[in-house]
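ok trying this again, last paste got cut off
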Amino acid sequence: MRRAYPSSVDGIALVLVLWVLTILMTIVLSYSYMARTETLATVSFRQSVQERFIAEAGVERAIIELFYRKTNPADTEHIWRVDCTPYEVKTRNGYATVSLTDESAKVDINKASDVILRNLLLNLGVDEERVDIIVDSIMDWRDPDDFHRLHGAESDYYMSLPQPYKAKNANFDSIEELLLVRGVDRELLYGGKGHRGIIDFLTVYSESGKINLKTAPREVLQSIPGVTPEMADTIISWRQEEGINIQQALGQNYSLISRYVTLADSNTFTIDSEAHTDRGHGYSIRATVRLYGVNKYKYLYYMSPLRLNRGGGEQESDGVE
């Protein structure tokens, strides 16, 4: 019998079939990968939106608590504290960690004297030479003239930088504007390496410019001329006890520091809200609000999302309103 050998046509057909199968498999795998990627992107987007709504819910709850605090000051058991104490706001899909900070408990960089600014920076561990540069540069930035202080800087310094700009010669509009001032960098402002940033102790939203003895942290209290570390600790301990009149308790010492301090209730607060879900820490928001009457308020500052540096302070954000 004559043996049959495959012809060259059969070999070519086999090669074409293999190529077609390879191309089809590649197309199928590509579509599968794209579908998987789009599914994961959709899930991630859904989770980020969910986290944003949780964080926003925390902000709205904090505003309600601020109005409750204002209308029910005697209910010390239930009102939220305004000294960065964290509170949980639970939702169906997670919870938000929310804290309130009284803006009058901070040092207003538009109104504070150079002495207070200097004391605050020294208390936060900034070396003295750098403190001289920063304080004088802050005063030069906000004053209306072009005459610079001994260690300060005006437009002639800033115009000599690789990316030149002029000194503002007007008040600061935000704390982040300090990054334009000589001597201030991101680590000092936002914190890091285990230390808090100066942004936690400064404000541009103080109505009177005076420091509130009822809510100011130890670092800010010690920046007040005449307030020793022991006196600051005593004031903080008095705040934990009901019925103590701080002004009377300070006696003559209050007269010495009265030009720098206040005991009046504030209407301006900063809200920090961070969402928590199964994924862990998520979307964060920082907002500063001012209350009017018993049911009206206005946003002075709104940072969303706020990315936090776990070493202490904020690092980046997508935008400011």
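PB: full thing came through this time. The chain has a mean pLDDT of 87.
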